[in-house]
Amino acid sequence: MTTTAQAPRFGVNYTPSAGWFHHWLDFDLDAVRADFDSIAALGLDHVRVFPLWPLFQPNRALIRPRAVEQLTALVDAAGERGLDVAVDGLQGHLSSFDFLPSWTRTWHRRNLFTDPEVLDGQAAYLRTLAGALRERPNFLGMTLGNEINQFSGAPHPDPDRVTPAEVEAWLRRMLAACERGAPGRLHLHASYDAAWYLDEHPFTPWHSARLGAATAVHSWVFNGTAQRYGAHSTATTQHAAYLVELSKAWADDPARPVWLQEVGAPAPHITAEDAARFTGATVEAVLDCPDLWGVTWWCSHDVDRSLADFPELEYGLGLLTTDGTVKPAGARLAEAAAEARRGWQPPEPRGTAVVVATGDEVTSPRRALCGPGGPVYEAFMRLAEAGARPTTVLAERAEDRAHLAARGITEVVHPSDVRSLQPSPARNGACRHAR
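That's the Glycosyl hydrolase sequence above. Prediction below.
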């Protein structure tokens, strides 16, 4: 069966099998090639990679040429194996560790989002990385940084305070720097779910859904979802699909692409024995979301247990072990990718929309109602459990006939009209924040 629409992309966040992201200190291109061979063997088509900002720009006026050369060599190695590459810039934050250059901390403490000199340095760095890759046909584009919104407020122990207006100015400038370096590529930014669920967080849904070439969502069910509803619940397996559809409430473009840029099966909330089932169910749910750009699993390889101080769940999130053995979740994702590419049929529009009333649509001060346990979340999941295919719409647009028609919405429901879910007995886990 032939179709005119392309199937969503399937890829993985690349975690080097040896040395984790510290591999940039002892860069071994042969080891990278071997990792990419194991990723390509799964039938995936792209990787997201993470230069460590302090290693690439150790001084505000020094972007190390050798580090940039190593990044371009990595991108070329991926291309030789049929893999496209998305590059994150300001790392930033990875798996509970912060990586910030010394010229922003302690004696040189300056706000990451508002200090003029820091902004000049960040923009130069992003422009340099993008410019170095602009001629590579397999370079997808830049993400400004991994969940960099976690630096802007609680629960970070030393946040760089910023307002939503200052966030917008920062995002626009950094995205413009990427565009100058490599015009026309997929440049975007990515937040962890505080942007969607945390009241008055300075990075807002409006920022995610309006700025950049696509909307990125990161879906982690250890944010209270699996704890509250249970691993096998609709509320857990549909969490990623929910975030994709929640983002559309704020988008101006009815066909704006949404990238599920991170999703994984974290133990103990999802057991190792259950990871393949969770992977398949999550992907099946999200593939029923119109305008999905792609699914990028976290992560490619497990973290070597010789490395200390990671949260326990981080060690086993890979699709492959450190020696390249495919784990059950990896085999299931490979199978799902192959299934999706065979005779892909784009999903029909989702006709039932749950009303989202978070206050002002730009700053959305009341976002907790969208999170696990909140009325929007529970209404969406109850509808999904009943066999509906729900989406969301802002209260400000709930009676805008042109907007509803453009999205294929034929029914609007308020959360109060939908019966609440009954929480699982295992509801008292700690909520996750940023990774």
